[in-house]
């Protein structure tokens, strides 16, 4: 058994959380770098960070109601501010008016409630005097009194990794961000020593265990390696942003459906406010997605990617034994579809979203019958309530006596 078999197939859907000092100006999580804010001016935000309304159980309640089974938390973003009680920099949550280890609070509740805990850690660090890495990206030019030194900075990273992987219980995955373009497998090896069974992404110091497409889902029918796609509810920012441009729930459902139907995992991000609460706009989106997800989750959880059964570009397929799920993430353009080369009726057919029975028959379809050619009956699904479900991704469920026979699988 490969190490990634430990949990990826069991926890398909997760919550990404970008939270830090950048929630105070509420513009973007990279505000310091994108607006060239002086280091001291940005660091002074720590004196204002006091998330008195932070309640990890409320975050977990929202994750569970959405169908999510793990949380990936930004322990340190590019600004270098650490959201845990680290001994290796004063630029951390303990030196704020709040003065509590929020990661410890979140970890304790995740473990108590069987929510997997994943940690995000940025390789760029705009606060640390040794961190400047000219061969990587997302770097700010060092100050005159800085001492760019990757050797010293990597010792700092290693020390913080020891803390994160030793003091917060079971960590199911480690999400490096911004490839440093430094090959040093010993760093990931140490993480695996401290956290047996952990998965590590592909943005760190070796090739890692899984890929992390961001914002866009790659084309294809099936992922060839473990994959965790990530997206945010907000188009402009991953952290909390006032006047954010929020994606539609339908757009996000389509992204989730495509990723999961291809066999990947999905991280959907929210950015809490500076006081620790979830923006109502983000909560509304997750509530709508959760309502849909819980009605269709059987087509993801326990089902396998099976789009190779048909050469189609308008939908994806998953399968659980003799049950086939048709994922219409691109939307139907008509009220019916023909499933050639299937010429056997299913014993049961329904719209999974609603449980409504589908009309199915074997028919010779004009679009597949050419002048002078041979004609054949194929499985035709008709009168699908396309307009009635326009606000969500539709998934059809077909149950066959023998799916191998229906699809002529040898």
Written description of the protein model:
With 410 residues, this protein is of the alpha/beta class. It has two domains: 3-299, Glycosidases (TIM Barrel); 304-406, Sandwich (Immunoglobulin-like). It has nine helices and 16 strands. It has helices spanning 31-34, 39-43, 56-66, 102-112, 150-166, 185-194, 249-261, 280-296, 403-406; strands spanning 13-17, 70-76, 116-122, 173-177, 199-200, 228-232, 265-270, 304-305, 316-320, 323-328, 337-339, 348-351, 356-357, 359-363, 378-382, 394-399. The strands form three sheets. The chain has a seven-stranded parallel beta sheet. Strand 4 (173-177), helix 6 (185-194) and strand 5 (199-200) form a beta-alpha-beta unit. Helix 3 (56-66) runs parallel beside helix 8 and helix 5 (150-166) packs parallel to helix 6. It is elongated.
What is the fold-level CATH name, i.e. the topology of the largest domain?
TIM Barrel
Gross morphology is elongated
- Name given to the CATH homologous superfamily of the largest domain: Glycosidases
How does the helix and strand content classify structurally?
alpha/beta
List the defining traits of the structure above.
410 residues, alpha/beta, TIM Barrel, Immunoglobulin-like, 2 domains, seven-stranded parallel β-sheet, six-stranded antiparallel β-sheet, 9 helices, elongated
Could you provide a short overview of the structure?
The protein is of the alpha/beta class and 410 residues long. It is built from nine helices and 16 strands.
List the helices and strands and how they pair.
Blueprint: E1 13-17, H1 31-34, H2 39-43, H3 56-66, E2 70-76, H4 102-112, E3 116-122, H5 150-166, E4 173-177, H6 185-194, E5 199-200, E6 228-232, H7 249-261, E7 265-270, H8 280-296, E8 304-305, E9 316-320, E10 323-328, E11 337-339, E12 348-351, E13 356-357, E14 359-363, E15 378-382, E16 394-399, H9 403-406
Helix pairs in contact: 3-8, 5-6, 7-8
């Amino acid at each position: 058994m490969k190490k990634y078999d430990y949990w990826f197939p069991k926890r398909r859907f997760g919550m990404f959380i970008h939270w830090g000092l950048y929630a105070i100006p509420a513009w973007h999580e990279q505000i310091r770098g994108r607006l060239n804010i002086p280091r001291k001016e940005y660091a002074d935000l720590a004196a204002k960070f006091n998330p008195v309304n932070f309640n990890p159980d409320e975050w977990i309640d929202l994750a569970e109601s959405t169908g999510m089974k793990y949380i990936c938390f930004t322990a340190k973003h590019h600004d270098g501010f650490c959201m845990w009680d680290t001994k290796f920099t004063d630029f951390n949550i303990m030196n704020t008016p709040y003065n509590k280890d929020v990661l410890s609070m979140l970890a304790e509740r995740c473990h108590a409630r069987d929510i997997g805990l994943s940690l995000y850690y940025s390789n760029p660090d705009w606060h640390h005097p040794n961190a400047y890495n000219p061969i990587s990206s997302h770097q700010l030019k060092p100050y005159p009194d800085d001492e760019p030194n990757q050797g010293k900075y990597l010792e700092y990273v290693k020390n913080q990794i020891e803390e994160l992987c030793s003091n917060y219980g079971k960590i199911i995955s480690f999400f490096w961000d911004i490839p440093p373009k430094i090959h040093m497998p010993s760093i990931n090896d140490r993480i695996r020593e401290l956290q047996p069974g952990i998965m590590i992404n592909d943005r760190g110091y070796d090739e890692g265990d899984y890929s992390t497409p961001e914002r866009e889902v790659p084309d294809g029918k099936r992922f060839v390696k473990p994959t965790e796609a990530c997206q945010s509810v907000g188009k402009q920012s991953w952290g909390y942003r006032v006047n954010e441009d929020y994606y539609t729930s339908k757009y996000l459902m389509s992204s989730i459906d495509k990723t999961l139907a291809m066999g990947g995992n999905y991280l959907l991000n929210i950015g809490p406010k500076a006081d620790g609460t979830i923006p109502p706009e983000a909560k509304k989106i997750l509530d709508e997605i959760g309502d849909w997800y819980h009605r269709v989750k059987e087509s993801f959880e326990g089902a396998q990617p099976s789009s190779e059964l048909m050469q189609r570009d308008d939908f994806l397929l998953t399968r659980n034994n003799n049950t086939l799920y048709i994922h219409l993430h691109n939307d139907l353009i008509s009220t019916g579809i023909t499933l050639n080369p299937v010429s056997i009726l299913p014993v049961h057919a329904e719209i999974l979203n609603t449980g409504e029975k589908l009309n199915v028959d074997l028919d010779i379809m004009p679009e597949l019958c050419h002048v002078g050619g041979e004609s054949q009956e194929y499985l035709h699904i008709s009168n699908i309530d396309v307009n009635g479900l326009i606000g969500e991704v539709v998934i059809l469920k077909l149950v066959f006596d023998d799916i191998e026979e229906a699809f002529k699988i040898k």
